Amino acid sequence: MRVPLKHIKNIETFNNAKYEDNIEILCTCCKKYFLRRKKLFLDKLRKGDNVNLSFYCSKDCENKTKFKNKSFELNCQECGKLIKRNLCRIKKHKHQFCDHSCSAKYSNKTRKRVKWSESAKQAHSKKMKEKNIKWSESTKQAYSKKMKERNIKWSESAKQAHSKKMINFTPKLCIICNNKIPYEKRHRKTCSANCLSINQSKAAKRNLLGGSLHPKEVILINGDKLYVDSTWEMLLANDLIKENIRWNKPKKFLLTNGSTYTPDFYLLDYNVYIDPKSLFKKWNAPSEKQKTQLQNIKQFEKEFNAKCILITEKKNLTWDYIKSQTANHYTNGPLKDG
Length: 338
Known about the structure:
The protein is α+β, with helices and mostly antiparallel strands. The chain contains twelve helices and twelve strands. A hairpin with a 5-residue loop joins strand 8 and strand 9 (260-261). The radius of gyration is 43 Å and the shape is flat.
């Protein structure tokens, strides 16, 4: 394939360039060099003739060269002014005008207007009168009274009564500091920007550790508050509190395979760990995540010589079920958290 030298700036760069690299090509209209991929340049050479070949840097340059010899001089249909129009525009539009005002004048002259009869005019005027009925004085007065009643200014006694109601309303308490949230900010969960930042940082930490962003609150026997991650944990915690059984939230245990395991409950008087899991349902094919969790529980029991009760059904979230599972287990005292 013979490459035309007049379209290329440097032959050495063209020969050394790869198929997807950019090369400098001369525009046939503005005589400026622009960048194009070598692939597009060679594809155009294969399709067209090397003699009449042309490359353009933009659409404007292409239009200038294409319609340069195809423009004609015409007279405006309204004012008779000389104008230049391309062949494609002449084919598209029947009449040619110099601007919008001339086209509007011409269309107004040649437009066919239907004259209305007197009966049609009277019917139309009746419709317009019905739409624009004028109000009587009595209706105006009644409407003005209604508008005044809406915009009545409050007296001082009314203001004081309303302020008392606002003071006596039951306010929400802040999640972080337990202070009262004012009435204007009643839709919020925190009382200030400082408490909001603390709450967001806590939520982010819980999310990183695998906990839920919406923890459930549980009140212990001694009155302390403790947060659990799920509703199943909340149900089991409340049942254990009713039966006066001492328990706490254990820390993480580091296993030999590098993974960590954190049980949900530890019974202090029975040396037993409990882990309620709503994810472990009776499916035909458990997921890989569930398999790894089961393996971690078994490895935890072997390494730390502990007993962990896995609860997979909601009806078993009771102390009676746990008691039946821990009947043969003896107490060795609390384990050391890893």
